[in-house]
UniProtKB/TrEMBL annotation:
Protein name as annotated: Aminotransferase class III-fold pyridoxal phosphate-dependent enzyme
Protein's UniProt keywords contain Transferase: yes
Sorted UniProt keywords: Aminotransferase, Pyridoxal phosphate, Transferase
MF terms in GO: pyridoxal phosphate binding; transaminase activity
Family statement: Belongs to the class-III pyridoxal-phosphate-dependent aminotransferase family.
Protein origin, superkingdom: Bacteria
Statement: the UniProt record of this protein carries the keyword Transferase: yes
Matches recorded under InterPro entries: Aminotrans_3 (IPR005814), Aminotrans_3_PPA_site (IPR049704), PyrdxlP-dep_Trfase (IPR015424), PyrdxlP-dep_Trfase_major (IPR015421), PyrdxlP-dep_Trfase_small (IPR015422)
Gene Ontology CC entries for this record: cytosol
UniProt cofactor(s): pyridoxal 5'-phosphate
PANTHER family hit by this protein: AMINOTRANSFERASE, AMINOTRANSFERASE CLASS-III
Length: 460
């Protein structure tokens, strides 16, 4: 076989790709028909594809490249660490400097008494850890029957069997099965499900479903509640202001452990270091991944409170991954955190570029096919609708119109995702005002072109 490289014609790369590579969340038919876009390099917020096109990545990869692409310092940190100690584990009474340094750094950054970290290589693994952590916690407290974890429909907590059961994506449950002792309540998505209620009443009502679920299942059986401070993969659903205070009240009242899944919200995405700070909540456990290394290395983890750590620490926690606290991943994450802090990337987003992005993004709600534009920090979504007043869905399978708009974004060299008929963005936090202008211009153009196609299909 000839050497496969960037210099090969795109069509040949695509043919080999579809012949041998199974893609996540894609259909073979689409890949066969259209060919996957081959990304060859990237810098800042810009991807370069094999045709030489410059594509604005308004999704930061998969919500993870917070510091932007192409930071050589991270490559150098990996190189240095690989030469010194490419691998060692932290099982059976050993440790190493990068894992010590990263755990200590995270303890310093995380709010409250979240001072202890269990490492994994991804958000899915970290949420699997959380399931075992909370069950072990209650066993150690003499309440082994407290096993049920309450989550929300349309939540995303990962792709492993356990974390996808924890998540609320019905399509995933249907394919992979569903582990026991998981329970889902409804999401605080006012646009789609709020009916005639005000957002505030609706937020309260959805939060109170947690209390109802605890009472129905039995307080003595519920171990924890897990949620993303702002739902990401569910469509960037920013909950009404009444939602989180009520959830916190209920968790406190029934002594249910609160797990904040910060995989997307963590490390600046919402304009603070953690989404829990933006939403004013006090979790017992936080799931982290993605922005921890800005995606340069696979790393995730669970940060737990002093109390949870003390209870777990009373026994041997029979859990661990070969790559828990991988030294190269830790070294890269540390360098990423150094850059985020020293270059004041989160502060700049909160005080300067964030407000600019938010104002421009909200102006997309003036487009005839956009019902609402919701944004917090640097994560936002547009609800597409044929009728802004009634918030009606399109007369087509959900996602048909979203997909049509996404196709136009792709053609206009803008990576924007669709979740059903919501269009979502989550750009690198280092995006500049000039790049924000380009993002908004391309989004508007894609909405216009998408709307023309939607009209031609008789859906608008
Ligand atoms: N939790 C949340 C909130 C996520 O958004 C994701 C990934 N999109 C995960 C968990 C799973 O992370 P990973 O893909 O790294 O396993």
């Amino acid at each position: 076989m000839s050497t496969i490289s960037n210099h090969m014609p795109t069509a040949e790369l695509q043919a080999l790709d579809v012949a041998h590579h199974i893609h996540p969340f894609s259909t073979q038919e689409d890949l066969q028909k259209k060919g996957a876009r081959v990304i060859t390099s990237a810098k800042g917020v810009w991807l370069k594809d094999s045709e030489g096109e410059d594509v604005l990545d308004a999704m930061a990869g998969l919500w993870c490249v917070n510091i932007g692409y192409g930071r050589e310092e991270l490559a150098e940190a990996a190189f240095r660490q690989m030469k010194e100690l490419p691998y060692y584990n932290t099982f059976f009474m050993t440790t190493h400097v990068p894992v010590i340094a990263l755990a200590a750094k995270l303890a310093e950054m995380a709010p409250g008494d979240l001072n202890h970290v269990f490492f994994a290589s991804s958000g899915s693994e970290a949420n699997d850890t959380n399931i075992r952590l909370v069950r072990t916690y209650w066993q150690e407290k003499g309440k082994p029957e407290k096993k049920v974890i309450i989550s929300r429909w349309n939540a995303y907590h990962g792709s492993s069997v356990a974390s996808s059961s924890l998540g609320g994506m019905k399509g995933m449950h249907a394919q992979s099965g569903y582990i026991p002792d998981m329970h889902h309540i409804d999401q605080p998505n006012w646009w789609s499900e709020g009916g005639e209620s005000t957002p505030e009443d609706f937020g309260l009502e959805r939060a109170q479903q947690l209390e109802q679920a605890i009472l129905e299942i039995g307080e003595d059986k519920v171990a924890a509640f897990i949620a993303e401070p702002v739902q990401g993969a569910g469509g960037v659903i920013i909950p009404p202001s009444t939602y989180w205070p009520e959830i916190q009240r209920i968790c406190d009242k029934y002594e249910i452990l609160l797990i904040a899944d910060e995989v997307i919200c963590g490390f600046g995405r919402t304009g603070n270091w953690f989404g829990s700070q933006t939403m004013g909540i006090k979790p017992d456990i936080m799931t982290i991944a993605k922005g921890l290394s800005s995606g340069y290395q696979p790393i995730g983890g669970s940060i737990v409170s002093d109390e949870v750590a003390a209870v777990i620490g009373a026994t041997e926690f029979n859990h661990g991954y070969t790559y828990s606290g991988h030294p190269v991943a830790c070294a890269v994450a540390l360098e990423n955190l150094r850059i985020l802090e020293e270059e004041k990337i989160v502060d700049t987003l909160r005080d300067d570029t964030g407000p600019y992005l938010q104002e421009k993004f909200r102006s997309l709600a003036e487009h005839p096919m956009v019902g609402e534009a919701q944004i917090i920090g640097a994560m936002g979504s547009l609800a597409l609708t044929p009728n802004k007043a009634t918030r009606a869905p399109f007369k087509a399978e959900t996602g048909t119109v979203g997909y049509m708009v996404r196709e136009r974004c792709f053609a206009n060299n803008l990576v924007m995702r669709h979740v059903g008929d919501r269009m979502i963005i989550s750009p690198p936090l280092v995006i500049t005002k000039a790049e924000i202008d380009i993002l908004i211009e391309r989004a508007w153009k894609s909405l216009d072109e998408g709307m023309a196609n939607v009209k031609a299909a008789g859906l608008f």
